[in-house]
Amino acid sequence: MAQLLVLSDSSEHDSLPALALLSHRVRHIAAEPANLVSAPVADLIFLDARKDLTNAKSLAKLLITTGLACPLIVIVNEGGLAALSVDWGSADIILDSAGPAEIEARIRLGIGRAIAATTGDTIQTSGLVIDETSYSAKVHGHPLDLTFKEFELLKFLAQHPGRVFSREQLLSEVWGYDYFGGTRTVDVHIRRLRAKLGDLESLIGTVRNVGYRFNRLEDAQAFEANF
């Protein structure tokens, strides 16, 4: 079951009616730039472009330039197909009349392609380069002296930019279910990672009373510039 976000100024389920027939968790918010600040985390975003192509295109570009961390699918009617182009930056398009089987397929393919793109041998973002093949990481070209678990933790967070993980989730994902240490282990490793990242320490953000997430610095700067 995927976490889906629908950006639309229409009533719930109006933009893509058949989506309600699927078992995914779906949240709807108005398609306004200001709402992106507090938008919930999603595995995939649907953007309703049926009624206002101009504003929808602007919002799509804003999502892409601010470092969208999940696939974007634009919802259009047949009359809007001619206005779509590569500069929208979307991963896919879908007609509002699509049935549940087609919607499910596009969700599955969109999320699958996104996962494949973030699980390659190298992750590069914000001056940080992580090479999974050699188990090494560099900041501005300078190697980081990381322990195995520090590397695994940094790699895992970087593979899921913007997503918040609790300490318990990080323990199970990085240390494994058979690890019996406490969650303080995560805090210690996060503190050591930040110290080694130096001026890029803010790449690892803290969400109070929840956990940690990976921040891409250029995305944050672009986001602030647009608001």
Secondary-structure map:
Elements: E1 3-7, E2 25-29, E3 44-48, H1 53-65, E4 72-76, E5 92-95, H2 100-117, E6 122-125, E7 128-131, E8 136-139, E9 142-143, H3 148-158, E10 165-166, H4 167-175, H5 184-197, E11 204-207, E12 211-214, H6 217-226
Parallel strand pairs: 1-2, 1-3, 3-4, 4-5
Antiparallel strand pairs: 6-7, 7-8, 8-9, 10-12, 11-12
Helix pairs in contact: 3-4, 3-5
Summarize the structure.
The chain has helices at residues 53-65, 100-117, 148-158, 167-175, 184-197, 217-226; strands at 3-7, 25-29, 44-48, 72-76, 92-95, 122-125, 128-131, 136-139, 142-143, 165-166, 204-207, 211-214.
Task: Give the tags.
227 residues, alpha/beta, Rossmann fold, Arc Repressor Mutant, subunit A, 5-stranded parallel sheet, 4-stranded antiparallel sheet, 6 helices, 21% strand, disordered C terminus
Describe the structure.
It is a single chain. The radius of gyration is 19 Å and the shape is elongated. The strands form three sheets. The protein has a five-stranded parallel sheet with strand order 2-1-3-4-5, with helices on one face. The chain has a four-stranded antiparallel sheet with strand order 6-7-8-9, covered by helices on one side. A three-stranded antiparallel sheet has the order 10-12-11. The chain is built from six helices and twelve strands. The protein has two domains: 3-117, Rossmann fold; 122-226, Winged helix-like DNA-binding domain superfamily/Winged helix DNA-binding domain (Arc Repressor Mutant, subunit A, Orthogonal Bundle), CATH 1.10.10. It has 227 residues and is of the alpha/beta class.
